[in-house]
Amino acid sequence: MIDNLITWRSFADGSQGPIARQWKVNSFPTLYLIDHNGVIRRKIQGMPNSSALDKEIDALVAEAELAKSSS
C-alpha cells in the first residue's frame, strides 16, 4: 500500500519557472485552494494542517455541489 498519494492536480516548475513566478511562489510547498468558480480561496505556504485543510476542502466541495444542484 502506498501512503500519502496526492489525489489532486499538481505541478512543479522549480522556483524560477514561469508558473512559480506568475503565481508568486516563494516557498515549497505552496498550495492554492481554488473554488469551483476559479477563485483562490486560500494560499498556504509550508506544510498545512491536514485535518484543517480536509475540512476546508470538504466545505468547498459541498458549496460546489450545492451550486450545481441549484442550477
Question: How would you characterize this protein structure?
Answer:
By secondary structure, this protein is of the alpha+beta class. The chain contains two helices and two strands. It has one domain. It has helices spanning 18-22, 50-70, and strands at 30-34, 40-45. A hairpin with a 5-residue loop joins strand 1 and strand 2. It is globular and about 40 Å long.
Percent of residues in helical segments? 25-40%
Sheet/helix structural class = alpha+beta
Give the count of structural domains.
1
User: Roughly how many Å apart are the termini?
Assistant: 40 Å
Give the overall form.
globular
Would you tell me the overall average pLDDT? 88
Strand order of the largest sheet: 1-2
Ranges where pLDDT stays below 50 over 5 or more residues in a row are none
Strand content: 15-25%
- SSE succession: HEEH
Q: What's the main sheet like?
A: 2 strands, antiparallel
- Radius of gyration, in Å, reads 14 Å
How many runs of DSSP E, i.e. beta strands? 2
How many alpha or pi helices? 2
